[in-house]
Amino acid sequence: MPPAIRLLSPATINRIAAGEVIERPAAAVKELVENALDAGASRIEIILTSGGIARIEVIDNGCGIAQSQLALAIERHATSKLADEALVRISTLGFRGEALPSIAAAARLTLISRPPGQDAAARITVAGGAVGAVSPAAGADGTRAIVEDLFYATPARKKFLRTPRAEADAAERAVWRLALSAPGVAFRLVSDERVMFDVPAQAEPARVAALFGRETAAAMLPLDAWREDIRLTGLAAPASLTRATMALQSFVVNGRPVLDPQLRMSLRLAYRDVIAPGRHPIAALRLEIPEDALDVNVHPAKTELRFADAGGIRSLIMGAIGRLLERPVSLAAAPPAFPSLALRPPASTTPGTMPAPPSAAARGFAEAEFASFAPAARQITPDPTLTTHPLGAPVAQILDTYILSVAADGALVITDQHAAHERLTEERLRAEFSAGRVASQPLLVPVVVDLPPADAMRLLAQAATLARLGLEIEAFGPGAVLVRALPAALKNPDAAGLLRDLADEFAEHGTPAALEAHLDSALARLACHRSIRAGRRLTPEEMSALLRDMEATPRAGTCSHGRPTFLKLSRAELEKMFGRRGM
Ligand code: ADP
Ligand code: MG
């Protein structure tokens, strides 16, 4: 006999759906806030305990749920929203009628609701799928949803929860995205009794400033572009302002915050040629797409979309950002293009003869060729004694960014001064750190850095470890951090940029031990900030010192982001490239 087929019980069905819809506390938070937005609330408060694992409370002042409908609200596939059953015109965030029953299957859910104008509120509690009676309750206009002991009824899922800290971060990110999607709604988020943000109803640019940080937002440029009947609006940062992670990217499609890989990719492509690998653009983008050109019913969590014209949307984003990046303000920060193929043989050398001896070749090269693009290149007189070193004697600095040097064997070396210095400082920091503590330099005037409160909290939680890295910080009111000392070798520190990048790093890796566990990336981050920038003019002595340092430093061939620090063209390679050999 084959095994019998039977219908699953509603409780099991809800548990299965819970696995898809409520994958972690952040997902429950998102669903409850979406319900509050759909209910037309103008103010939403979210209170989390232990990252939402122990308790999530979402309070809104929306339309409420009639007492007679409370029991129905937690039934599977029960919704007040789906007017168009063809699933084309979906104007609400919810429509599947799955969130409340899924939450109720995995946790203890209480709804207390009072439609405005009613005398009293009513409440209902469901625990692990068992529905209690509806009873009168005290409550203000609107709805309060309380979720307790998430996943106590689904132990398999409970095992996959991360630390309360990591879950709180994820929930905060979810609310951050929703708050960006609805700037006209006031949001307050409290996590373990700390106010993470509290923003009034405001215009979109003010909301972006509140949630991206005021300084960052001030540098962002507005964009507004159409492609057929699709509209793209929002703000995007110039190429000179980037982040260590994708944390400051928000996409809202037809009012819905999404985490869509296609949109992220389009943004990445738009910035591809202008920002360094490993850095991420900053943008708050909003797309309005005709409802029939969009399918939101791709994923139970509704965070990914299917676009009828995905290619068109990509072109729209790339085109609009491309135009924005062409604006002079961003161009000023970007170095001009590398002069094309400067690597021509010295004019004095007749084809077919042996090349001149190295030092003469070096001099000839400089004299004959650099004159023609003098503004981009600065020639210096090479010190012949230095050619014996592997990275040779510097002969010129190109674009205030690359050091050109010639070694004794005639090899031509091009060094990226920023990448090289970054590696040197990282190695030095690493050595100092493993010897105990990175030397720090107290600031004469401590610097106050404004940060989103959650970022500030993340950094302060790591203050002790940061101190071992030479970075001394203290709390300075909500959303501000006082920097008392920076790693000693840091020359012109951008304390704010450094703190933001470190906060991103912690947010991304989540655990309290982040800094220790990700010491490499923290060191790399520090190194990047304390290194000489591309675009700085170096003296011949500085160039030579940099090359000598590199020769003495381990792993000097790549920078902390894995890019090469120098390129070496041996005499043989040069001869081959010019067809003098192997023909
Ligand atoms: P959906 O949002 O897809 O309709 P849910 O399970 O999230 O499904 O919610 C079921 C129904 O409960 C909603 O359609 C709505 O009528 C009602 N509801 C849920 N939360 C709220 C709220 N905060 N305010 C008013 N009504 C709500
Ligand atoms: Mg819903």
When the domains are counted, the total is 3
How does the major sheet shape up?
A: 9 strands, mixed
Rg, alpha carbons: 30 Å
Q: Which range best describes the helical content: under 10%, 10-25%, 25-40%, 40-55%, 55-70% or over 70%?
A: 25-40%
Q: What are the segments in which pLDDT stays under 50 over at least 5 consecutive residues?
A: 329-375, 511-515
Number of DSSP strand runs: 24
- CATH topology assignment of the largest domain: Heat Shock Protein 90
Shape descriptor: elongated
CATH architecture group name of the largest domain: 2-Layer Sandwich
Termini separation: 78 Å
List the ligand species. adenosine-5'-diphosphate, magnesium ion
- In CATH's first tier, which class of the largest domain applies? Alpha Beta
- Mean of residue pLDDT? 81
The named CATH superfamily of the largest domain = Histidine kinase-like ATPase, C-terminal domain
